[in-house]
Amino acid sequence: EGTAMKDLATPDRVLIGGLTTKEGQVAVQKLVWVYNHWVTADRIITTNLWSSELSKLVANAFLAQRISSINSISELCEATGADVQEVGRAIGKDKRLGSRFLNA
User: Fold this and answer.
1) Which DSSP letter does residue 42 get?
2) Quick one: which of 56, 88, 50, 42 has its CA closest to 69?
3) What's residue 44's pLDDT?
4) Half-sphere exposure of 31 (CA within 13 A, CB side)
5) Torsions phi, psi of 95, nearest 5?
6) pLDDT, tens digit, for every residue of 10-30?
7) For the segment 43-77, what is each residue's pLDDT rounded down to a tens digit?
8) For residue 81, what are the CA distances in angstroms to 14, 62, 74, 78, 86?
9) Are the CB atoms for 67 and 59 separated by under 8 Å?
10) CA-CA distance, 77 to 48, in Å (whole number)?
11) So what's the pLDDT on residue 40?
């Protein structure tokens, strides 16, 4: 949705994964130090390497499902005469769903 620069400047979260070795933890803390220059500590998440990788894959899968869903809803709207923008706005007001990535 054209938000790459804003997302870099004010990310929802920064996920840093590293090895659980002493060296790995030193590397993680160095990255935390870099990000702390513009990201608040409560938005920086540190995990082990595999938790980080799986979290990123799951987040991308959820996003892909969301985009796929709104595309399917758009087709359904076309078939029924519903307005996809109105449907997107209505479901986006549900706090469990939110409004991001609901534009077909």
Assistant:
1) G
2) 88
3) 98
4) 14
5) -60, -25
6) 999 999 999 999 999 999 999
7) 999 999 999 999 999 999 998 998 899 899 999 99
8) 41, 28, 10, 5, 11
9) no
10) 43
11) 95
